Amino acid sequence: MPILVPLLLICVFLAMYLMRRGRTLTRDCRWRLDRAAEGGPVWRCAVCGGLSRGGATPRHCQRKTG
Q1: Contact assessment for residue 45 and residue 34, using Cβ atoms and an 8 Å cutoff
Q2: CB 30 within 8 A of CB 46
């Protein structure tokens, strides 16, 4: 029984870590694919106006900081 509580806590923290790891860092960004752009597909953010070139949805905000 004494080993069950620490084991349960480890499982809970491991589950929280794995669920958080899958989240993106663009919480407020809304990416839209612009296929009509020159040079291939371009992802544009409707919130911050960031641009990203590539095939997959961006995971990081492209907003200029500073």
Answers
A1: no
A2: yes
